[in-house]
Amino acid sequence: MPVYVVLSRLTSDGRKTLKSNPERLKEVNKEIEAMGAKVVHQYALLGRYDFLNILEAPDEKVIAKVLVEMGSRGTLQTATMQAMPIDDFLQSMD
């Protein structure tokens, strides 16, 4: 299944939500799964971005739906990249 790396930054509304309800992060993961994607790994970051999420989704249409839904809430901004296993990358060089 395709893998996507999602870097996110909380907006001021997102920081308020997180402060008042830290478990909201896990609730969002369940919402993502209901839309057809899966959160494989999730990390809090120190620096330019607040979180790094590794998601799996059947295709770019599903990941686009997830990201539009998440972004439309006004609580975060994202930067997303599709990732490729290194062995697949090396095979593409043949």
Describe the structure.
- There is one protein chain.
- The chain contains 4 helices and 4 strands, in the order βααββαβα.
- The protein starts with a strand and ends with a helix.
- Strand 2 (38-44) and strand 3 (51-56) form a beta hairpin.
- It has a single domain (3-92), classed as Lrp/AsnC effector binding domain/regulation of amino acid metabolism (RAM) domain (Alpha-Beta Plaits), CATH 3.30.70.920.
- The mean pLDDT is 96.
- It has helices spanning 12-20, 24-34, 60-72, 86-92, and strands spanning 3-10, 38-44, 51-56, 76-83.
- It has 94 residues and is an alpha+beta fold.
- It has a 4-stranded antiparallel beta sheet.
Kindly estimate the percentage of residues that lie in beta strands according to DSSP.
25-35%
Order of helices and strands: EHHEEHEH
Structural class: alpha+beta
Q: Could you say what the CATH topology is called?
A: Alpha-Beta Plaits
Q: Assign a percent range to the helix content.
A: 40-55%
Largest sheet: 4 strands, antiparallel
Supply the number of structural domains: 1
Compact summary:
This protein is of the alpha+beta class. It has helices at 12-20, 24-34, 60-72, 86-92; strands at residues 3-10, 38-44, 51-56, 76-83. The mean pLDDT is 96.
Furnish the topology, listing elements before pairings.
Blueprint: E1 3-10, H1 12-20, H2 24-34, E2 38-44, E3 51-56, H3 60-72, E4 76-83, H4 86-92
Descriptive labels:
4 helices, alpha+beta, 94 residues, Alpha-Beta Plaits
